[in-house]
Amino acid sequence: MNNRPMDLCHNGNDEISLVDLTVTFVRRRRIFYLVMLVCTVAGVGYALMADNTYRYTSLIQGAMVASDQPLTAPPALMATLETRWLPETKARYESENGRLPFNVAFENPKDTYLVKIITEAGENHADLVKRIHTTLMDQVAEDQTKDLDQRRNRLKKQIESTSDLVASLKKDGVTGEALASAVDRKLNLQLELSSFLPAKSLVIARQSVDPTGPRRTLIVALSVILGGMLGVFAAFFTEFLVAVRTQMAQKS
């Protein structure tokens, strides 16, 4: 086959035909095969050697002020985790150890008041994942305990005030609706106080049974596609370089 490079420099309205492109590709097909083979082998090698990753899930129940009323709604709690406690936890870790080797995400399971803390990482990072998750859950519990204590103290003061009112009404011999209303209010406040539940950790860094990655088939498929694209580019770019070198040699 004629290995003379195709004249890629045209003047006027000259165009490179599809036949010329095909001939060029066939002439440089070895470069295409080589580049595609290298990319495919690299992709297969990575897919085989990459460590498995697993999903680690922690589950926290936020503090409750009633059976159907959380102290902080899950979306607001997740926003605080994402914008405050997670950045603070990452900053403390990275100041001593460098970049945190995984990401942390948050979810609210549908129709629940729970918050999931989710991380995908290799088994070699399992202890670190547990430590980070535990730190985040401890911060939630500590912060909500303070808020819950403040509400509890306010309710206790209201109960004491209402108790004093009931005692005063009884001392003055007041009966009927006024006394019943005061007693009822006291009972409602006591019931509200007894319904307070602190935040608690339900699950800590539970590892998924099956690995979540890497997606080896997808990696191989992408490496083949990328190899084909780079191979075509390399074939035509090589032809271009050879043509430029040939013209420079003719002019010198």
From TrEMBL:
InterPro entries attached to this UniProt entry: Bact_polysacc_biosynth/exp, LPS_length_determ_N
Cellular compartments per GO CC: plasma membrane
UniProt keyword Cell membrane present: yes
Span of domain Polysaccharide chain length determinant N-terminal: 14-63
Subcellular location: Cell membrane
Chief location category: membrane
Keywords assigned by UniProt, alphabetized: Cell membrane, Membrane, Transmembrane, Transmembrane helix
Source species, domain of life: Bacteria
Transmembrane segments: 31-49, 218-244
Membrane topology recorded in Swiss-Prot or TrEMBL: Multi-pass membrane protein
Pfam families xrefs: Wzz
Name of this protein: Polysaccharide chain length determinant N-terminal domain-containing protein
Organism of derivation: Marinobacter santoriniensis NKSG1
